[in-house]
């Protein structure tokens, strides 16, 4: 069976070092990733811990750093679907049980200076089986999910203007009680 991949590229007026910090520092990720903090020492083989809200403990969802070459390349395994996703998207227990069996995937960020004080950021998320609901979520095709395009547009706006486009994803705020 062949696997699917999603790629998104944007140019951001910033430096590679600042973009790297935005991808790896919890204080920064929380600002554009709807409160999500990521924590790691960013060495190959290290866990990438996930925090849904600042007051929560960081959780180990099985994500692991696969490659790190600051400030040009970062890759890690991606978490599996969680019960919070079922709540967010309104899945039944049966739907969640089915979707939770999808294989773990991988996300890779490539940062390249692109002239004029800009950095080209390419996000490649791969390893999806055909029909994957996680693929639909990260690509923005799943109702209520902006996916990588929404997150990267938020990141771009934050780095270029100091403000984000959205403070909560379209449906996640209801599941987290942010309204």
UniProtKB/TrEMBL annotation:
Belongs to the AHA1 family. It comes from Nocardia suismassiliense. InterPro entries: ASHA1/2-like_C, START-like_dom_sf. It comes from the Bacteria. Residues 14-160 form the Activator of Hsp90 ATPase homologue 1/2-like C-terminal domain. Pfam families: AHSA1. Gene3D superfamilies: 3.30.530.20. This is SRPBCC family protein.
